[in-house]
Design a protein that fits this description.
Chain C: Keywords: Signal, Transport. The structure holds three protein chains of three kinds. Chain A has 14 helices and no strands. By secondary structure, chain A is mainly alpha-helical. Chain A has two domains: 77 residues, no CATH class; 227 residues, MetI-like fold (Orthogonal Bundle). Chain C is α/β, with parallel strands linked by helices. Chain C has two domains: 205 residues, D-Maltodextrin-Binding Protein, domain 2 (3-Layer(aba) Sandwich), CATH 3.40.190.10; 206 residues, 3-Layer(aba) Sandwich (D-Maltodextrin-Binding Protein, domain 2), CATH 3.40.190.10. In chain C, strands 1, 2, 3, 6, 10 and 11 form a six-stranded mixed β-sheet that branches. A three-stranded antiparallel β-sheet of chain C has the order 8-7-9. Classes of the chains: A mainly alpha, B alpha+beta, C alpha/beta. Chains in contact: A-B, A-C, B-C. At the A-B interface, helix 1, helix 2, helix 4, helix 5 and helix 6 of A face helix 1, helix 2, helix 4, helix 5 and helix 6 of B.
């Protein structure tokens, strides 16, 4: 069966399967197990209401457990074993990693990514949101800045190769340098340390639109009176922006910031297509790929280090969510 | 009063200009890709895409064959036209064109102005006229072909050849179908599962609801990398292995927390009275869900669908691990990253065309459904 | 209305049908009597796999992929099987993942015996049919060494022949543009000393001597490993080279470091390489030789294996436009004229009768001749008609192979996959972009130590 038909078939089976499961299980509950009539009608209704949420949740919980919760544990257990997976070596893989220079570079770069990309994307997004606000053609501008969001990391890397390339006729950066009289093209992807920032900018380019859209909505939500009052008091536009507007949307800024932080931890494609991790540009996800399925012990250890990096943000996020529910 | 208005319009101008600058910065790289994808590969190597509408000065070499020589006076002469050479035919239809310089050595292909007469290293002379006509004179019979280098101004050539090549011989057509095959089920199935769960978490009261919501929020950020090794091993153990079924399941799993989170946030905001009154009228939860909640949640469902579709369509990592690496299962991102960047490394036109084929569908989806995406994003992030 | 629906249905069918295009035969069987067509007929008579599917995976992409497909088309034609080939720059990683997921192709074409040895030890390869080993020893020139290179220890501890070499390359070659050498009056160097002098002379004449490109997607860096291997064979005895492969000579041995630094002499000098030292690491290796053929030339020489003419710009002719010379040895070291080569090894990763038949097909002369007639192909098969070589260049390279006083297989291909197809590559990229040779060598050695 060609995959495309297989795909259509799967949609059909998946959708009807899901609907059938929910419909039948509810039917079963209401008609057979706890019918809301007869001698125990009241008790049955209470019981059905106890069971029903779990019927609704069951498939999602299975999927979440199997594809997200189990791997956290599974990966951790695997990372305590040697390359073949048979011998328990405790924290040996972690000790080896800490001793290796490549790992330290990857951690350093990853921390740089975590600091720079969310900050830059949020800042650009805020700037774009403020500037396009009340502009007659603001929506068009927003749409264009938002567009990279639809482009794959691989596609974006190719796009930026046309900017970074090491020749006057392909690379835009070198073309500009050439116009100012540079003799020899440089390869920005090879400048030690700073090359990381050029690669990060691709991610900033993709994520700015996301930040802008959300922050722009938040800016519109600011009560007019506060701004008007500030104008009456003679505040300058910059003062209004930083003293009045930014504090009021701080909550949204933090949400945007953390969302982009999580995305940064998943990025592997950009480094893989731009440099393959060469020139000191590895980040943990790409560094992990150089071990994966050769030395799974180390690969999973690297993955777990990523998990540790994200843990503080995760805990903060959960606490935030719980506070909102109350 | 006047001065304030003046300052105000000055500020307005500054805003306009900075937005223009920002938009250009964001648009130019993509524009470069689009322009390059319709240029001829030889012209891409000569001038930057920003000069694409201008004619290009390109250097060519042809060889005059000794067989074409005829005796003339006390030596030999070869006459012909450099623009007639079949190797350059696509640049000079009908042999028309203008030679701007010529030379006898590869090291200095533009030494001489058209019309000049140059000395050949082997003895004899070469002259090339502006219209391409050339004359070689030699005192003795020629044994080796004579190389003639010339530079000509060539009009820009806009072509869809790159797209044709990418779609036919490079296998992007197959990769496109594969991407589509991965993306559609991986978008539809998680929505259904997540919608039911989101409803339970939003509108049903039961013990452990708070813990579950917190767990979903926590799982939202579990790095994908953790899942790769254990899950592929699991798939191997149960016999799914690397397959389309495997990648559908994997994407369903990885997209689930965001789906539940987005949909729950939206459903919580629906008016309580509608649901309460439906309950009073004796509707079951299943009926409330299908008849009231689902239709009302359409914007959030659409937003997540767009999100998930873009994510799956653009994914490289999951495809590399959960799909077989053979060309009959390669998706476009893998095709570009593992095959084309390598085999077509210097062939910028081909790379650009391939990239454009891969981003065309997401761009269409994005621009037509942007409204829903924005609404969904806001539902998820701004409270 | 019904007609419209019908039309849509046919369109959908057509869309599905076009996904499996039938490969055409580039030469009608029997058309050219230089080819051993009778071996194809005999093979076709003995093997019928109508309806069977055979999948082959390898590293070849682009032009190479089209050539291997063109040869496999004859197999498909002869047996009726449906053959699909897929190439990937990430082959080294993909094949391990897919073999473990039971989604391996039937046949994998390994550029590195080292990686195949890893997989054989884990039981992911199937030994070749009995008799294949004897056939290799008898039919291939220097058959014993080709057989030994394809013999690995399986999961049961028994050694067996797991891989058949088909398509061999000579790596110790330097390519140049005949026009450019002729114009400038350069002579082909006979010794390494002459080559170093010529390099300097080209700079003095205002030219650029070398084009070097290491870019190769996920495999970026491998061309530099060839440089280092060739240079090591020219400054140290072959035994050192052999010891280096099994790590009895450590990677950070002074002689290895010296070879790395010698490579750096060429590649890390802005005046010696086209685009400057920085361009080396990112220029794609397939794109690098095109600099030889620009006007004015970007460079004059390009060191690369016998398969590189496949990637030269279209329409160039051996002898008229380009030529090659042997990457010379030092006159002052008495180490003979070492030649380094490599080859691709075909092994069965998912056994099936049709896979066994493909291995048998690769033993027929016609399978070799069909690729010889194209480009970038050498073979140790003694039963083929050498007239089928498409160019004198390939015949000439065969002579290099025959004149060798020392022949060694590409070391990085024999090292364990993690080193030879991983740490060595990225280490060479680090070195090319400025890292210290000793540091790079020590880092690679520590990765090797970690594997024990």
């Amino acid at each position: 069966m060609p995959p495309i038909l297989q795909g259509l078939f799967t949609i059909l089976v998946g959708v009807t399967g899901c609907v059938a499961y929910f419909w039948l299980s509810n039917l079963l509950l209401d008609r057979v197990i706890c019918p809301p009539h007869g001698p125990h009608a009241g008790r049955n209704i209470t019981r059905a209401n106890l069971i029903r949420p779990w019927l609704f949740l069951f498939p999602a919980l299975v999927v979440l457990g199997l594809y997200l919760a189990y791997p956290v544990v599974g990966s951790f257990v695997r990372s305590l074993h040697d390359r073949s997976g048979t011998e328990f070596i405790g924290l040996g893989n972690y000790a080896d990693l800490i001793a290796s220079g490549g790992f330290r570079v990857a951690v350093r770069n990853n921390i740089l990514w975590l600091l720079v990309v969310p900050a830059a994307a949020t800042a650009f997004g805020l700037l774009a949101a403020q500037l396009t606000d009340r502009l007659s053609w603001g929506n068009v501008a927003k749409s264009l800045i938002f567009m990279p969001m639809a482009i794959s990391f691989v596609g974006a890397s190719l796009i930026w190769r046309f900017v970074y390339d090491n020749s006057f006729d392909i690379g835009l950066i070198n073309a500009v340098r050439g116009a100012f009289g540079a003799e020899r093209a440089i390869d920005v992807i090879q400048i030690p340390f700073w090359n990381n920032f050029f690669i990060m900018f691709i991610m900033v380019w993709i994520q700015t639109g996301f930040a802008m859209v959300i922050l722009s909505a938040a800016l519109r939500g600011i009560p007019e009176e506060t701004v008007e009052a500030a104008i009456m008091d003679g505040a300058s536009p910059t003062q209004i922006f930083f003293r009045i507007k930014v504090p009021q949307i701080m909550g949204t800024i933090v949400v945007v910031w953390t969302t982009i932080t999580f995305l940064v931890l998943k990025v592997f494609d950009i480094v893989y297509t731009m440099t393959g991790g060469n020139f000191g540009t590895h980040i943990l996800p790409s560094y992990m790929m150089s071990f994966m399925f050769r030395d799974d012990g180390r690969a999973t250890a690297v993955a777990f280090v990523i998990m540790i990096l994200v843990l503080p943000v995760m805990i903060w996020n959960i606490r935030q969510a719980r506070r909102e529910m109350r | 009063m006047h001065s304030i208005a003046g300052r105000k319009s000055g500020l307005q101008w500054a805003v306009h200009l900075s937005v223009v600058a920002l938009v250009l910065l964001w648009l130019i790289p993509t524009l470069g890709l689009l322009v390059s994808s319709v240029r001829d590969r030889d012209q891409i190597a000569e001038t930057g895409w920003w000069l694409a509408p201008l004619p290009v000065e390109m250097t060519f070499r042809i060889r005059a064959a000794p067989d074409d020589a005829r005796a003339s006076g006390d030596g030999f002469v070869i006459a012909g036209n450099v623009l007639d050479d079949p190797a350059q035919a696509r640049w000079f239809p009908d042999g028309a064109g203008t030679v701007t310089a010529f030379g006898t050595r590869g090291a200095a292909p533009t030494e001489h102005a058209p019309g000049d007469t140059a000395e050949l290293r082997t003895g004899g002379t070469l002259s090339v006229a502006r219209d391409g006509a050339f004359t070689i004179t030699a005192p003795d019979a020629l044994t080796r072909p004579v190389s003639i280098f010339f530079e000509a101004r060539v009009p820009p050539r806009v072509t869809l050849d790159n797209y044709a090549t990418v779609l036919t011989s490079d296998g992007m057509d197959r990769a496109f179908l594969n991407t589509l095959t991965v993306a559609v089920p991986a978008t539809v199935i998680p929505i259904l599962i997540a919608a039911f769960a989101a409803y339970a978490l939003a509108w049903m009261d039961f013990r452990g609801r708070g813990v579950l919501i917190a767990a979903v929020v926590g799982l939202l950020v579990v790095p994908l990398q953790l899942a790769l090794v254990p899950l592929l091993n699991l798939h191997n153990a149960v016999g799914i292995g690397q397959s389309f079924l495997g990648i559908w399941l994997a994407h369903t799993g990885f997209g689930m927390p965001l789906a539940i989170y987005l949909l729950r946030n939206y459903m919580v905001g629906l008016p309580r009275d509608i649901i309460e009154s439906a309950r009073v009228d004796g509707a079951t939860d299943f009926q409330i869900f299908t008849r009231i909640i689902l239709p009302l949640s359409f914007p959030a469902l659409a937003a997540f669908a767009i999100f998930q579709f873009l994510w799956v369509w653009n994914d490289l990592l999951v495809a590399k691990v959960f799909l077989p690496s053979g060309s009959d299962a390669q998706v476009m991102t893998v095709k570009i990253a593992d095959d084309l960047i390598g085999s077509r490394g210097g062939d910028w036109g081909i790379l650009a065309a391939a990239a454009f084929v891969s981003i065309a569908v997401p761009l269409v989806v994005f621009f037509t459904l942007q409204r829903y995406l924005v609404r969904g994003l806001l539902a998820g992030s701004v409270k | 209305m019904p007609t419209r629906r019908l039309a849509a249905g046919t369109a959908a069918l057509a869309l599905i049908a076009t996904t499996a295009p039938a490969q055409e035969l580039f030469l009608e069987p029997g058309a050219d009597d230089r080819f051993s067509w009778h071996t194809l007929e005999a093979f076709a008579d003995a093997h019928d796999h109508t309806g069977a599917r055979l999948s082959v995976a390898g590293v070849w992409t682009g032009a190479d992929a089209r050539m291997v497909e063109s040869v496999l088309a004859y197999f498909a034609h002869a047996t009726g099987a449906e053959v699909s080939y897929s190439g990937s720059d990430g082959f080294e990683q993909d094949i391990v993942i897919s073999a473990r997921s039971n989604s391996a192709p039937n046949i994998a074409v390994f550029p590195q015996p080292g990686l195949a040895a890893d997989m054989a030890a884990r039981g992911l390869l199937t030994p070749l049919a009995d008799g294949t080993e004897d056939w290799v020893r008898a039919t291939y020139a220097a058959g014993d060494s080709w057989a030994d290179l394809g013999r690995f220890v399986g999961p049961d501890g028994e050694a067996a022949l797991y891989g058949l070499f088909y398509k061999v390359d000579v790596k110790s070659l330097v390519w140049y543009s005949t026009d450019a050498f002729f114009e400038m009056g350069y002579d082909v160097p006979d010794t390494m000393e002459d080559l170093l002098a010529l390099t300097q002379r080209i700079v003095d004449d205002g030219g650029t001597p070398w084009c070097i490109g290491l870019g190769s997607g996920a495999a970026t860096g491998w061309p530099a490993t060839d440089w280092v291997e060739d240079l090591l064979l020219r400054i140290a005895a072959p035994e050192v080279y052999d010891g280096w492969i099994d790590n009895s000579v450590p990677f950070d041995d002074p002689r290895v470091i010296e070879a790395i630094e010698l490579y750096g002499h060429f590649a890390r000098n802005d005046d010696f390489v086209s685009g400057g030292a920085q361009a080396v690491a990112t220029t794609d290796w397939r794109d690098a030789p095109s600099g030889l053929f620009r006007f004015p030339p970007d460079c004059h020489m390009h060191k690369q294996a016998s398969f590189i003419p496949t990637f030269f710009p279209d329409g160039l002719e051996y002898g008229l436009d380009y030529d090659f010379f042997y990457f010379p040895a030092y006159a002052r070291h008495d180490l003979g004229e070492p030649v380094m080569g490599a080859g691709t090894m075909w092994a069965i990763t998912d056994d099936a009768p049709v896979a066994q038949s493909l291995i048998a097909f690769l033993q027929t002369p016609i399978a070799h001749e069909l690729w010889m007639a194209q480009s970038g192909f050498l073979t140790p098969h003694t039963g083929v008609n050498l007239d089928t070589f498409s160019s004198d260049a390939q015949r000439g390279i065969n002579e290099v192979l025959l004149d060798a006083t020392v022949f060694r297989f590409d070391a990085s291909d024999l090292m364990p996959g993690e080193i030879g197809a991983g740490a060595f590559w990225s280490g060479m990229v680090d070195f090319t972009t400025g890292a210290d040779a000793a540091d790079v060598a020590a880092e690679i050695q520590s990765r090797w130590d970690a594997m024990r």
